[in-house]
Design a protein that fits this description.
The complex is a heterodimer of chains A (about 110) and B (about 110).
Chain A: E1 4-6, E2 10-13, E3 19-21, E4 23-25, E5 31-38, E6 42-49, E7 56-57, E8 64-70, E9 73-78, E10 87-94, E11 103-104, E12 108-112
Parallel strand pairs in A: 2-12
Antiparallel strand pairs in A: 1-4, 3-9, 5-6, 5-10, 6-7, 8-9, 10-11, 10-12
Chain B: E1 3-5, E2 10-14, E3 19-21, E4 24-26, E5 32-38, E6 44-50, E7 56-58, E8 64-68, E9 73-78, E10 87-94, E11 102-104, E12 108-113
Parallel strand pairs in B: 2-12
Antiparallel strand pairs in B: 1-4, 3-9, 5-6, 5-10, 7-8, 8-9, 10-11, 10-12
The chains are: A mainly beta (about 110), B mainly beta (about 110).
């Protein structure tokens, strides 16, 4: 069964901490994405990557960075966590080509206190 | 600009009744359209997609959706709702260019009443 795995389901961090959210896919997908989901705002794209060592900013990249050193792994980094980054974070991957949908991970619910 | 609209934040349906969750889109060119479902504290799961061909698309769990090009709509339907269908539903469109991003609607919460 193909999957996207996010390392943590629930995470609690303190303000100012550096936070790493890890995402691994086993489908040899080229594309990977990080979203955050907040009530009433839907899914908002933070960063995405079409290839190893490649990254592009999404709609809300401020306060975040990403790393893609290997094809299967896409990490989201909160450089200095703040309370307004409390959210559900979703990772997704897809094959290259516009006919394909995304496969999502189960999500990480991050609380910054 | 490309966009997807789900006009209803919430839809309530009695169990056994037919359900419809509405979606309209605005993109340049021909769209690829998707529906996803999200259960509490879970990621999004793929339900169905329209790429080309028959306008009526059948998907998982008895859901179907009809692509209507003239009305730029892609409504999700099911003939007989189950309580277990209660979840958050997202419509999405993929734009035909080198940028492979999917644009998501804000979601519609479906409540099936026993």
């Amino acid at each position: 069964d193909v999957k996207v795995t996010q390392s943590s389901r629930y995470l609690v961090k303190r303000t100012g901490e550096k936070v790493f959210l890890e995402c691994v896919q086993d489908m040899d997908h080229e594309n990977m994405f990080w979203y955050r989901q907040d009530p009433g705002l839907g899914l908002r794209l933070i960063y995405f990557s079409y290839d190893v060592k490649m990254k592009e900013k999404g709609d809300i990249p401020e306060g975040y960075s990403v790393s893609r050193e290997k094809k299967e792994r896409f990490s989201l980094i909160l450089e200095s966590a703040s309370t307004n980054q409390t959210s559900m974070y979703l990772c997704a991957s897809s094959m290259y080509g516009t006919g394909y949908g995304y496969t999502f991970g189960s999500g990480t619910r991050l609380t910054v206190v | 600009a490309q966009s997807v609209a789900q006009p209803e934040d919430q839809v309530n349906v009695a169990e056994g009744n037919p359900l419809t969750v509405k979606c309209t889109y605005s993109v340049s060119g021909n769209p690829y359209l998707f529906w996803y479902v999200q259960y509490p504290n879970r990621g999004l799961q793929f339900l169905l997609k329209y790429i080309t061909g028959d306008n009526l698309v059948k998907g998982s769990y008895g859901f179907e959706a009809e692509f209507n090009k003239s009305q730029t709509s892609f409504h999700l339907k099911k003939p007989s709702a189950l309580v277990s269908d209660s979840a958050l539903y997202f419509c999405a469109v993929r734009v035909r260019n080198r940028d492979d991003k999917i644009i998501f609607g804000k979601g519609t919460r479906l409540h099936i009443l026993p």
